[in-house]
Amino acid sequence: METPLMQNGRPNDLALARQDSQDDTEAIVLEDELTAVRLLDEDAAGPQLLALRGDGNPTQLELGVPSIVVNDGPDPTRVSSTSHNRRGSNAESDRSRITQVSDRGEALFSEIHSTEPAEPDAAKTETTVIDSWTLEEQLLAVRCRSSNPPKGQVFFPRGTLERIITKKAVIDTIKTENRHLSDEEVERYAAQVCRVRLPNGKESSYRKIFAILIMLRRGRDIILFVDDNLCDADLPLEAVTVHANPNANMGFKFVNMRRRKSRDTPLRCLQKWGYIDHERFGELQWGTIAPFFGKGDRRHARFYQLSENDILPWIEEQSLVHQGGFSFISRVKIHPSHHNFEDSEPNKMSDGTFAIKHFKPNVDSQNGLTPSNPESPSVTLGDLEGEFRSEIATLNKFSGGDNPHLISLLAAYRHGSDYCLLFHWADSDLKSMWKNTKPGPALEKANLMWILEQCRGMTSALRKIHIYKTTERSEDPAGRSAKEPIYGRHGDIKPENILRFVKQDRPGDRGTLVITDFGLARFHTDNTRTYFPKKDVAGTPTYRPPECDMEDCAISRSFDIWSLGCVLLEFVAWYLGGWEHVNDFVQHRKAPNVLMYGWNSDQFFEIVRPEGSTNGTVGARVKTEVHQFVNNLHSHPDCSDIIHRLLGFIMKRMLVVESKATQKRGNCYDVYNELDALYQQLEDPSFQLVATPRPRVEADIPEAIEIPLSSDALKLTASRFTQLKEHTGMIRRISQPKQDPSEGLQAGPRRTQTTPTKSSVAAMGSVWKG
Hints:
Layout: E1 6-7, E2 10-11, H1 13-21, E3 38-40, H2 42-45, E4 61-63, E5 67-70, E6 78-82, E7 95-101, H3 106-112, H4 135-142, E8 144-145, E9 154-155, H5 160-164, H6 167-177, H7 183-193, H8 207-215, H9 222-227, E10 238-243, E11 254-258, H10 275-284, E12 302-306, E13 314-323, E14 327-334, E15 353-359, H11 363-366, H12 381-396, E16 411-415, E17 418-424, E18 428-429, H13 430-436, H14 445-466, E19 467-475, E20 481-489, E21 498-501, E22 512-515, E23 522-525, H15 558-589, E24 591-592, E25 600-601, E26 605-610, E27 619-622, H16 624-634, H17 641-654, H18 668-683, E28 705-706, H19 711-718, E29 725-727, H20 758-763, H21 765-768
Parallel strand pairs: 7-12, 12-16, 26-29
Antiparallel strand pairs: 1-2, 3-4, 5-6, 6-7, 8-9, 10-11, 13-14, 14-15, 15-17, 16-17, 18-21, 19-20, 20-23, 21-22, 24-25, 26-27, 27-28
């Protein structure tokens, strides 16, 4: 029976997309594709776009370099990343909004704390000061040392200046050092110094200015700053060189501090200051304006533009947790008064520790390491900015959404030349969890229910990517607004790109598995879906599908289904036998791969030739070793009917060789429905989870499907054809059906290679050869 959500017996993607979005009417501007892609050869770059956690196989890098257009509309803080028209693309470029922050989060902090008293209760502050100390001593005592390089920099945590610089403290200082003022004048100056900054920034206090003056032992000058109307909102002042130093190479410059918007106008309040005082003011001011980080509106990440002089409020930092060719991950703790991320989470997903993904050129040399390949192509700041903004555009599509299995971007910032993305820190990635965690008894319902629940959740997240949202960009014949679905694929599903977050406020929580690393994701609308050559495809070798080596075959959402099927098989192996089983599975399927110059590959498929042939037709099939390992899982003493059914579904609907002539792989709805049915069965109180192992049997020779090799693959097999594994029996030829345009994905002009170079394989032999 046909329903609005079904079409020709299959889910109606458009109807389901509309259903998914019916509760979300917010108009969202999106970027549907990355653009102008540059190649960083993987033999030079190593593992490129790292997951927030993970240490696995190399991922090829695609650099999207969109132009940055600042809107001149009513909201100048919105920065749009727009795509150029691409060859072969009929899509109108969408835009993904980025909320740009240029005030270090001052307005956001003021808005959040607008209802708090100007002078907070001492009992509610984390700092401890001794009232008998001088104001200078109290200020020095509450400073925090930043763990961010260059180490040794200090900052005042938010709220400490309000705690110490009270109206009474200001009055006492002014009275002592400006005896010519009347009590009324002193009161007026003190009120100005301690006034509350309004969220719109029109009024600001002088507390930060006053703190700097106290440390310079020039507290008396605060009245000059008030008279000159130079307040905290004017910080940071800019150091302007007033005349040249013939010995400039010695490091000292003759500078005066000026307002940033009036660099040519000397400040009256500083007329009698010496150069050293100007220089010291310039150094001390940064400690009073350490940024405050906060989440933006849903799908609008805040992008902080920070100077290289800004002091990051990190109180702990572990750099280079994971490193790639030009990006690396660090682990930090942010001072709790400098962010509101915990308050924005319905369930506490971390202990206040955050992951920062850095996009930075020459990471090796900057950290005293030897570059992995001295002949690697240079990475410009323009390349980094393009990749950085492209990844933000993709992450924005899912950040702050209602699916807990998709990673949320908390914030992004540029600190000098360092481009960074900020996320909650995960307890582990899926591969690390398999390595370091015992699966527990296989026949305990709770253990299997958690696995099925998480796999079902990840499939729902992948479904969100595959049919993300609808956008109103066209009209139907009647002139009414019509919605188009936006299709996508992740492109790099693997255990290292699946993070496990444990909820800190729930003792015994097993964790939530979250899909991350959207560096290879692609999005498009229905009228832009086409087929493109395999040289444009990137991905991790282990989990890539056979169509990556085929000529003129669609790389579609089905790409992710194959990769997810591989991950699910390894998940079942862990469930039944822990990490030992997972590792055995890897070793079991390793075999020389002609397309990788004979190096061992643990991918799940292989290219084969007809028995006895020396050239001509080739086919692709799921490796015999994979089939045999699955048979072994069926015969495991703890294997149940639910696992039998799951393994059968993976092999029949997910790990299926596809070409333009055969598209039998299931989609996300098929996978989700199967996992949901298994979960519902297990959830039934009357259902008993019992072992039903099958007799151990040898795997039959798997079916091979004739495929047309890509030009790169043909070159590699030309002189090595007889090294391909022989296939006993017929390689099935399937007639060419009419092309279904609903499965292809449009790609911009890219030069990312799929078939690796010989040098790249040698460089990554530890990964591919084992």
